């Protein structure tokens, strides 16, 4: 069995790690959203979970329902659900894909949600522009669609949820 990857807390990460996180995010911002150093710091400070590989090549930022976050997608969940962990973004460098890194980050998210007594992990996946790889990945993890939205012009998302324990929707 492969060894579990090592992660560092972004709250304590050195500037080179944060710079690498910004670079990784920039490569996929059409699927996530743009970040600059100040916005990254604000997100990390407000998050429930903010982890990265030591080189910043893969990372997760997630919020619980009480998080101070203004994303329309996060607010969609907050208006409808209680006690959840919202995955704002999981980004994995292309050279690390297919090695279980995203799954390891989700495992850590589910562990954090369980430790905090949160009942579900939620996220959104782009429908427009399409992201079929993310659709397949989330389906394999047991996420199910609970709604759709159009948070910005040209972007349509599928809102997904999975209980912290077990498979399938809540």
Automatic annotation (TrEMBL):
Gene Ontology molecular function terms on file: acyltransferase activity, transferring groups other than amino-acyl groups
Domain annotation N-acetyltransferase: ranges: 8-165
Keyword Acyltransferase: yes
Cited PROSITE patterns: GNAT
Pfam families, alphabetized: Acetyltransf_1
Family matches, as CDD domains: NAT_SF (cd04301)
Keywords: Acyltransferase, Transferase
Protein name from the UniProt record: GNAT family N-acetyltransferase
């Amino acid at each position: 069995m492969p060894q579990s990857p090592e992660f560092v807390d972004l709250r304590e990460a050195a500037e080179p790690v944060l710079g690498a996180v910004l670079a990784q995010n920039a490569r996929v911002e059409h699927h996530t959203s743009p970040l600059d150093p100040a916005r990254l710091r604000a997100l990390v400070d407000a998050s429930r979970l903010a982890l990265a590989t030591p080189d910043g090549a893969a990372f997760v930022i997630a919020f619980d329902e009480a998080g101070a976050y203004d994303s329309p997608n996060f607010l969609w969940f907050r208006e409808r659900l209680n006690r959840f962990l919202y995955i704002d973004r999981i980004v994995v460098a292309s050279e690390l894909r297919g090695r279980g890194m995203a799954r390891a980050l989700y495992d850590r998210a589910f562990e954090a949600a369980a430790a905090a007594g949160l009942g579900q992990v939620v996220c959104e996946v782009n429908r427009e522009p399409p992201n079929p790889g993310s659709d397949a990945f989330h389906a394999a993890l047991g996420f199910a669609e609970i709604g759709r939205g159009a948070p910005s012009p040209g972007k349509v998302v599928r809102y997904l949820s999975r209980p912290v324990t077990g498979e399938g929707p809540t």
